[in-house]
Write a structure and sequence with these properties.
It contains 3 helices and no strands. By secondary structure, the chain is mainly alpha-helical. Helix 1 crosses helix 2.
């Protein structure tokens, strides 16, 4: 990070979340503040999408199932080769 942070902000959070941040910071060898700032900065990044290869038929089947649960319908038709 290496940036000088000149703005202080008093933050309240649940003890369990504080413990998770402390553990993460320790694992990454940085302060809790640096861990929180890094996580916040990462949350604003739009370039780190993790998309795995999924077969089209599987993707469409899952989509159709989710739409059906919301009383929506989708019709899937296969094109002839």
């Amino acid at each position: 990070m290496g940036k000088h942070l000149g703005v202080a902000y008093n933050l309240r959070l649940p003890q369990e979340l504080k413990d998770k941040i402390a553990e993460s910071a320790k694992e990454l060898n940085r302060s809790m503040n640096a861990d929180i700032v890094a996580r916040l900065e990462d949350s604003f990044e739009t370039t780190h999408l993790a998309i795995k290869h999924v077969e089209t038929d599987i993707l469409l089947a899952v989509l159709a199932e989710k739409l059906a649960k919301n009383d929506c319908e989708i019709t899937i038709s296969k094109k002839a080769p």
